[in-house]
Specification:
single chain, about 425 residues, mainly alpha
Amino acid sequence: MKKKKQRKPSASRRLLGLTMLFYGLAFLLLYLYDYDLRALALAGAVPALIFVSVRGLPRVFPSDRLLLSLSSFLVALGVLVLYRLNPERGISQLINYMVAIAAMLACTLAVRFIRRWRLLAWLAVPVSLGLLALPLVYGTEIYGAKNWVTLFGFGFQPSELVKLSLLVSLSWLLSRRKVILAALVTLACLGLLMLQKDLGTALLYFGMALLMMYASTGSPLVLMAGAGGGAAGAYVGYRMFAHVKRRVAVWLNPWADRQGAGYQIVQGLIAIANGGPWGTGLRLGNPGVIPASFNDYIFTVICHEFGALFGVAVLGIYLAVILRGLAIARQADQTFHALMSLGCAAMIGLQTFVIVGGNIKLIPLTGVTLPLISYGGTSLVSSMCLVGVMQGVSAVNRARMQQARESALYEGEDAL
């Protein structure tokens, strides 16, 4: 009697297993360092949450398994690094992750099953403007920008939430060829961000809107006009705001005031250099000397302890997320869905470039977070919502293709 051949696990399952093993061993190593039972609990909880996200959710909800795998790796990396820096922050980020998964699923289901977006798209315009106006009334200034709001003891950045509402409104307006109206909505949002002195977020909004407008019109004139307007806006911001001038001066020569204004950049560059290609090892580095290591400069911590090669691999994962979003946009048969997926990919890509570019002194540093990794509930929820929108568009694409296959099958049977 012949024995049945055992099926080899697929590449995706092997990758999932290696990811779970990586994080399980990493948290186990942190446990062995000081025998903190919280690390031991996370050694089981984080791999379990990754497994449920990647293997369990697609069985219940319409999900894109590749996007889930990539985003889960990045979020888990954030939890690991934050726990290494501060256990309380790491545990808090894990809780944020659970909330973010729920928000991601809500966005996925909304895109998959909502058929009429006209009312929601129009409502998104005043919602976006209202949220961006909040910091001007109740805001708290941090690092020169007045972009934080604290209500009922809960602090958040309204601009993070507006990423989603602005995306919906611009996608709908551009899908209806209302380019001028979309430009006016974008300019109104940028104006409110300028009043907050939050030029980093303004750059993200502007880049996303410009790419979406170019994709919807295909006109190089739109691209050139937008780029010219953006350059003029950047110059005005540089002339108006003292903290922007300081950041540019520090970027040009951080060593001129290495113990003062240039301290953050200098310490970040030294940390990356000390880590080398392979890193100092988890818990063997000294990331505590890097200011804002849990949000703005978390990428330098990754390069410091895990190595520059691992940092490049992390950027490769971000690139895979972006390419997946673009592929989903190309497969969409509705302009509205295509623009939403494109906008999500553009926002994640631009935000990653801006913060990583600032960390390695490629561009002046801005106060934005590294998507999916940096500490913060609002930032993580908004990033996972962007992933959820792309998953929703992917689910619509799959449902359409499945329907087309079934229709072709029925037609073939009728012909017989």
